[in-house]
Design goal:
Shape: elongated
Structural class: alpha+beta
Strand content: 5-15%
Distance between the termini: 23 Å
Number of helices: 13
Helix content: 40-55%
Order of helices and strands: HHEHEEEHEHEHEEEEHEEHHHHHH
Length: 407
């Protein structure tokens, strides 16, 4: 195979060859960054969230009656709701909460030790901590492990205490990461904070994975008892027909009090997927764009090889007459595509970095690496080879006599 002769042949068709190389370079840039986005999206989806999602349902409920503005009435209906839901044979555990794990927005508080000097600024990592107001069985329902101390008990219910005074000091549970950061080298259990006394530390939960301190969380056993506040019910159900269970839940809630807006009942698995919907959708979009570009490039490679063969019949005929085997002709025709792919692979690095930088200005992008780039080079190389193989194979069927008659 004469590389110099191949380059000369390519230069005879500068525009077609240049366009094909440009397409390959752009395809490599898109393919590599699509691969990076897909890997990142899959990695996010496969992370351990620290709690069970199987057979856990959630739904939000909003009162539509003024009667719920009265805290005592509100709490009495919540108690009836809990009892009605627990009576369903498919429901194992029930809890309420003001917000769910894997949520953007919600309630946020700052936390510090009660003895923290007033003239010393609080570390920024302890500001804006997601704060949960939950029922007693919240952690049991999610299957979250208590790392230190204990879970909530009935006596920890701070609902009435807060209704009597906003200065009420409740018992609280912290996530493991937050407790270790707030009290490094010692147990947080028994410590007094501005948010309350720590009675337990729960193993890390995926609370806000999009934030720097993804596992920081404060938990209080209380109901906000406000009709204007957001409230979810969480249910641990037995495996079965989810749609039938949803119908029974809605029926039970309506029987307790009909003047309420029951939002869509969803599984925690669906909630988990929805949280990462932006990442997975973006990865899917770029994968589709890459597939489209790959198809266009394969068509261009096929056309380029077909045109090359049609213009090289004389030369191929001479080679066959001089004893070239079919395999030699096949390699000769395909070698130009391999050379073009090699040139594009060298120049494609700039395309990958350029597209990565541009995307990095609007979204969080992982940086390209050698393995991901070489994987995309192999995909493009194999695709080009497949596209070129048919015209190359047809060329081997040309008899030497027929080829030389094209002179």
């Amino acid at each position: 195979m004469n590389i110099k002769a191949l380059f000369k042949s390519m230069l005879l068709r500068k525009f077609a060859t240049g366009l094909l190389i440009f397409q390959l370079i752009l395809t490599l840039g898109l393919a590599c960054n699509s691969l990076l986005l897909s890997i990142e999206a899959n990695e996010k989806m496969s992370r351990d969230v620290g709690f069970e999602m199987d057979d856990v349902l959630a739904f939000q409920i909003r009162p539509t009656s003024e009667a719920f503005l009265d805290a005592d009435f509100f709490l009495s209906v919540v108690e009836e709701d809990m009892a009605a839901l627990k009576n369903l044979t498919e429901v194992e555990l029930v809890s309420y909460t003001n917000q769910l794990p894997l949520m953007r927005g919600g309630n946020f508080h700052s936390i510090e030790d009660i003895n923290h000097p007033q003239d010393v600024p609080v570390d920024s990592q302890f500001n804006g901590i997601p704060t949960y107001y939950t029922g007693q069985d919240f952690f049991r329902l999610l299957g979250a492990n208590i790392y230190q101390g204990r879970d909530f008990e009935a006596s920890d219910n701070a609902t009435r205490g807060y209704l009597a005074s906003m200065d009420f000091e409740p018992n609280i549970i912290l996530t493991q990461s937050l407790a270790q950061a707030l009290y490094p080298g010692e147990s947080a259990v028994g410590k007094q904070t501005n948010e309350g006394r720590v009675v337990g530390v729960v193993s890390d939960l995926a609370i806000t994975p999009s934030r720097k301190y993804a596992h920081y969380g404060i938990f209080k056993f209380r109901n906000m008892a406000r009709a204007q506040a957001r409230m979810f019910y969480l249910l641990k159900v037995t495996p079965g027909n989810v749609q039938e269970i949803k119908k029974k839940i809605i029926s039970a809630m309506k029987e307790v009090h009909p003047e309420r807006d029951i939002k869509e009942i969803f599984t925690m698995k669906a909630h988990h997927s929805d949280y990462y919907k932006e990442s997975t959708s973006l990865a899917t979009l770029f994968s589709l764009l890459t597939a489209f570009m790959l198809c266009v490039t394969m068509i261009s490679s096929f056309a380029h090889a077909h045109f090359h063969v049609s213009k090289q019949k004389k030369l191929i005929g001479i080679r066959r007459a001089l004893g070239a085997r079919k395999k030699d002709v096949l390699v000769y025709v395909m070698s130009e595509n391999w050379l073009i792919s090699s040139v594009a692979a060298g120049l494609g690095i700039a395309s990958v970095i350029g597209i990565n930088i541009l995307l990095g200005k609007v979204i969080t992008m992982p940086k390209p690496d050698v393995i991901s780039y070489l994987s995309c080079v192999m995909i493009v190389f194999i695709s080009g080879t497949i596209a070129t193989w048919l015209p190359a194979w047809k060329t081997t069927k040309i008899a030497p006599v027929t080829a030389t008659r094209t002179v």
